[in-house]
From TrEMBL:
PROSITE patterns: B302_SPRY, COS, FN3, ZF_BBOX, ZF_RING_1. It is found in: Cell projection, Dendrite; Cytoplasm, Cytoskeleton; Cytoplasmic vesicle, Secretory vesicle, Synaptic vesicle. Residues 461-556 form the Fibronectin type-III domain. It comes from Kryptolebias marmoratus. It catalyses: S-ubiquitinyl-[E2 ubiquitin-conjugating enzyme]-L-cysteine + [acceptor protein]-L-lysine = [E2 ubiquitin-conjugating enzyme]-L-cysteine + N(6)-ubiquitinyl-[acceptor protein]-L-lysine. The lineage of its organism: Eukaryota, Metazoa, Chordata, Craniata, Vertebrata. SMART domains: BBC (SM00502), BBOX (SM00336), FN3 (SM00060), RING (SM00184), SPRY (SM00449). Pathway: Protein modification; protein ubiquitination. Pfam families: ANCHR-like_BBOX, fn3, SPRY, zf-B_box. This is E3 ubiquitin-protein ligase TRIM9. Keywords: Cell projection, Coiled coil, Cytoplasm, Cytoplasmic vesicle, Cytoskeleton, Metal-binding, Phosphoprotein, Repeat, Synapse, Transferase, Ubl conjugation, Ubl conjugation pathway, Zinc, Zinc-finger. Residues 188-237, 249-291 form the B box-type domain. GO terms for cellular component: cytoskeleton; dendrite; synaptic vesicle. The keyword Cytoplasm applies. It comes from the Eukaryota.
Amino acid sequence: MFLRAADEALPPQPRAAAAMEEMEEELKCPVCGSFYREPIILPCSHNICLACARNILVQTPEAESPQSSRASGSAVSDYDYLDLDKMSLYSESDSGYGSYGGFVSAPTTPCQKSPNGVRVFPPTVPQPAPQQHLLLPHPASLPPIPRNSCITCPQCHRSLILDDRGLRGFPKNRVLEGVVDRYQQSKAAALKCQLCEKSPKEATAMCEQCDVFYCDPCRLRCHPPRGPLAKHRLVPPAQGRISRRASPRKISTCTEHELENLSMYCVQCKMPVCYQCLEEGKHGTHEVKALGAMWKLHKGQLSQALNGLSDRATEAKEFLVQLRNMVQHIQENGVEFEACLVAQCDALIDALNRRKAQLLAQVTKEHEHKLKVVRDQISHCTVKLRQTTGLMEYCLEVIKENDPSGFLQISDALIRRVHMTESQWGKGTLTPRMTSDFDLTLDSGPLLQTIHQLDFVQMKVPAAPMLQLEECCTQNNSATLSWKQPPLSTIAVEGYILELDDGNGGPFREVYVGPETICTVDGLHFNSTYKSRVKAFNASGVGQYSKTLIMQTSEAGVPPCDIQSIGTVAWFTFDPASAHPDIVFSNDNLTVSCSSYDDRVVMGSAAFSRGVHYWEMTVDRYDNHPDPAFGVARGDVLKDVMLGKDDKAWAMYVDNNRSWFMHNNSHTNRTDGGITKGSTIGVLLDFSRGLLIFLINDEQQGPVAFESLEGTYYPAISLNRNVQVTLHTGLPIPDFYTPGEADPTSSVC
């Protein structure tokens, strides 16, 4: 939707049919549910048909409506709103019936409801004859408004008492009436093409300049989109009819002085007034402005408000599309998930059936083993019983013999055989070798418990985290990033992986892995642009990356001097973590001293690899003429010797009379001029030219100390117990020095 400036008329803009239908609800009375007819504006800014307003009037007792408190119909402040509960007109929790004591109409009847659900009151005007139901009764034919009448807004339920003018005291909403009229005209029969010779077709466009309705064939034939006609504006037929039938601006008259036109606007009362209203003094002391100017001003304000509302409507439409897509995705994912669940349960059932078959095979094996053992024992016992029975029968027959000598010849052998056979039936022989019970018990308890505990677990990777931009920031060469999971995400997260590039468009590298949602990365390059991103992980895997955040470390500044020089302003302190244990810190790690007579090294908390940097140190204490050293160093510099003794440091050491530059224990460029208590030592590091320069009390000390410096360096000093220094950072580069000039020594002030 495009809205023009406030000082221009606002022609109707193209609208879709659906949007026009949605506007229809704004054009219907909350009482009768039909389009507004002669709408009036209540002090609460709601509208109502004039006839409907008569229908919902209620007469109040004289005691509750003193003459001094009656409404004038001119402004909200002129009305006395009544407490709806005290008036006892109706209750929102009643059964739908109301008692209207003193009401003009017939006895109490049930309340009605309009199509938009607003409670309305029964009509008070008698129904017209059937043949006249389309005509509104003339105002003179309506019954007079009774004294002490009260009207309640059907939308906000505010009640107010009418004055002697009754409903005539309310202003008519001519704008709404005009909109309703144009809308009803636009809903009429379809427009026809004006150029079709026989049986005109339905028009599809109207040219605002030609004022002609065209169908598609006639438009292509008679109004081609080229040449002079290319600049003509074609609009939908409905909009063209509205534009054609739009009536000229109507001149409104004052409700209190019907012969006077409204020409001014009272800012305090927020209503149009006439010249006579100002003359009579009612609005004489109020601030008034020209009606046309306020008309244009309020149109502009409405246009601006509509712009914001249009943005919200666009966002709402996009959100509805997103929700509809979610519905489709939910349905698709639901079907897929149900199929996956059925497959998983079927797999469990198959596994249980396979285990069932294995257990049944084990039971069958045990069953067959028991039967075999018992059957073998039966067979063995049967054979032995047959032998025993045969021996017994034989012995009985031998006993029957009467030959003593013959009996004695075999009796000893038979007695031995009987005893031997009896011993073979000894203990355990007549005991079953196998029980009939199965000593197998199925341990199904854990499985049943597992089945009861069978539930859904989180098996998805986490969603992409959201970077909280309001909490992400950079300071010096450090970057702080904060993130969180999406609001609607219910996926468990075990930790996060934060990645940064090298500040020069290189590949990403991991700088943090852990459960925290905020991380500060130190030791970055100054004056560099870093890209950062984060992703979450859990037992199922690693999720997607967040959106990439681009951050700038230590923006470049321009120092106040005639020659433009660019440097990086950085703030840092001395670093206790990397210092020798004998170093003593104070003043928030900006001041250091030493507890040893030997030289000890302490470095700064920031590392430099690009740009131009400058910092200073002031000598707070200087006893017995020691030789403190100032400069830069690598991260693995020796901490128990003077700075510059090894190949990891580039320094200037100085006493009370002179100074030397030192690197890898090589002393060069002896220069007169030393330090005392209160002296200031400056260090200028220029990576654009690879130079290191020293200053004492704002003047360059000697020539350029070191050249061809590349890589990463930390500010560093070495000192013993006779020296105490304080660090000063965040300083611009000195005025005399301009990066890139041919000879920096010639710029000494």
